[in-house]
Amino acid sequence: MEYRKTQLEALSHFLAENEMEILHALNVDMRRPPFEGQIADISLIKNEVNEALNNLSYWMKDECVDKNLATKLDCAFVRKDPYGVVLIISPFNYPFHLTLIPMVGAIAAGNCIIVKPSEQSSCSEKLLAEVLPTYLDPETFAVVTGGAEPTSKLLENKFDYIMFTGSPRIGKIVMSAAAKHLTPLTLELGGQNPCYVDCCCNFQNAANRIVWGKFFNCGQTCLAPDYVICTIETQERLMPCLRQAIREFYGCNPRESPDYGRMINDKHFQRVRALLDSGRVAIGGETDECDRYIAPTVLADVKEWEPVMQEEVFGPILPIFIVRDLDEAIQYINSKERPLALYAFSCDNKVVNRVLDCTSSGGFCGNDCIMHATLVSLPFGGVGYSGFGMYHGKYGFDTFTHHRGCLSRCMGLEAINCIRYPPYSQRKLDLLVAATEVRRKGFCTLL
């Protein structure tokens, strides 16, 4: 326990003593505003570290479990063992957040860790590779850098657990490599996150929250709402509110706003710019290839088969998809792969709860976007195509922990055990079944 706490404290010191360097690296890589870097890549990581330090002694304790009559005098418990050596592969969009928060769980669980940050956010990768190891024990923690080839070589090795955050395409490669060694893993993948907006709504409040969630980090967020789904009447009322929110947040010319980021590289810029051909540009649409700038954009008249509705946008483009009513919205959402997050806006709680009850997603947030991921008390993870496994808070500790079922019995009282030994008899069978059965509570049979 003391060793784990020492390493968590060291991680905390890394954040505190390199705050300006972290913010600078994020700004160089993605023009990330310091405010966004402070919230997403420093504050939330600190929360995870503090949560682990506050609760580690409790999390690590053996967990006593219920016993049957046959083991009433014995000790039955769950031991929390580390898996061993953990590999964490993180993406470019939140290079510190998505590297260090999984690390918190893995450290708390007592594992050795190899980290592979994304080479695309090169300034952040360099900081993680050169500075982070000076804070942590080099005997148990290491950072590996490079692109696809070093990652492939890394995956040829046998690990005890792998955590990957990134696209479903690469997730399949990682899962295939893990399967060769029967290595358990967690996949945090992407997908299209729907955002249902009801006709009964405070449209300006909804627009403010959607615009913030969509254009935070220039839309390069796996939890960002990928598309708004609503009726034509709702679109007509929502559109001016979206326009007003964008203007209030980023000014008349978002390109000059210090609070608006840029695409990570030319490849992603080209990919996202091509999505502007879908539907009709209702707001924004301006681009600058030299600056990797794509304006906060809203698309209308989008069709189901168009490219922007076929893939995770991962950029500052928000399509609006029209349906007749809530039933059709739910039907459409359920016709697609299950998303990492799902959002529903309505002043009627019955509507929000209906969306929650009738759909499946990794996480859900009613009347806001992304904010559910700020709680260390909630599990974070996908379902189906958006991934599997979870972390944050104790869920991270549990993910990187082998829960070892243990029973410790005394050497005496052999008379109790003899009912399970040959020669068998009906009486022994009846006694053993009675001694090991689980009875239903509050259940009785009417004769």
Note down, in words, how this protein is organized:
The protein is of the alpha/beta class. The chain has 2 domains: 2-189 and 390-402, Aldehyde Dehydrogenase, Chain A, domain 1, CATH 3.40.605.10; 194-379, Aldehyde Dehydrogenase, Chain A, domain 2. Helices cover 40% and strands 17% of the residues. The chain contains 15 helices and 18 strands. It has helices spanning 2-17, 19-30, 34-60, 97-108, 122-130, 148-155, 168-180, 203-215, 232-250, 266-274, 326-335, 349-358, 393-399, 414-417, 426-436; strands at 63-64, 75-82, 85-89, 112-116, 141-143, 161-165, 185-188, 194-197, 227-230, 280-283, 287-288, 293-294, 297-300, 317-322, 341-345, 363-366, 387-388, 401-408. The strands form 4 sheets. The protein has a 7-stranded mixed sheet with strand order 10-13-14-9-8-15-16, with helices on both faces. It has a 6-stranded mixed sheet with strand order 5-4-3-6-7-17, sandwiched between helices. The relative contact order is 0.13. The model has no long low-confidence stretch (mean pLDDT 95).
Percent strand equals 15-25%
**DSSP, total strands:** 18
Please tell me the total number of domains.
2
Largest sheet: 7 strands, mixed
What value does the Rg take, in angstroms?
26 Å
* The CATH superfamily title of the largest domain: Aldehyde Dehydrogenase, Chain A, domain 1
Mean pLDDT: 95
Which structural class do the helices and strands define?
Answer: alpha/beta
Distance between the termini: 56 Å
Form type: globular
The first-level CATH class of the largest domain is given as Alpha Beta
> Can you name the CATH architecture of the largest domain?
3-Layer(aba) Sandwich
